[in-house]
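Here is one chain, start to finish.
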Amino acid sequence: QVQLVESGGGLVEAGGSLRLSCAASGRTFNFNRMGWFRQAPGKEREFVASISWIVDSTGYAGSVKGRFTISRDRAKNTLYLQMNSLKPEDAAVYFCAARMGFTTYDYWGQGTQVTVSS
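Its structure:
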């Protein structure tokens, strides 16, 4: 079994920064890739960024590229999302997820709220 627990959300002014963390426990050695997703009120969950658990391969949504940085520490089984130059439209519940294969994310955290004031 795998558990993912996010932390680091909060309230920040526009232009500010936050760093989200996601602590993974369980069968993390089976991970292929981990990612961050977000969901704003009334909107569908959307992809933010992802990173290979094995090699240095990352991907970003166009809306966050250049502002957000995803990273992971395999020794600590922790995923991070450094968010800079935050905008009000970045406000959402942020979820981390992990997948064993190449398409579907198998495990999800409970989410952490990010609020950006203008």
